[in-house]
Amino acid sequence: MALPTAGLGGSEGLRGSLTAGPGGGLLVDLRGLSPSLRRPVVFALLDQLVRLECREGLVLVFDHEPAGFGYQLQMRKESRGLFDFHYDQRLDGAWVALVRRRWS
Length: 104
What we know:
Layout: E1 17-20, E2 26-29, H1 35-51, E3 58-62, H2 67-75, E4 83-89, E5 95-101
Parallel strand pairs: 2-3
Antiparallel strand pairs: 1-2, 3-5, 4-5
């Protein structure tokens, strides 16, 4: 399924993909998105997952090491302390991150 473009100023720069993962979670390949849209799209998805009290994880595919994204996720007031973030590099060079909601 293609990413929705509503509220993002049209489809310019939107070439990423959003699919259901094998465990029922979401798999989002960010490599095709314009760099200026990547974090806003991911944070909008995470905000919706929190709002819907979704228990599924989010798998993100990056073309660079996502340590900065993980740091921003933990420092952002809307998501501080709500998510676990782990990442690793695949053999093909892509970086894959798993974002999972923390439940008490």
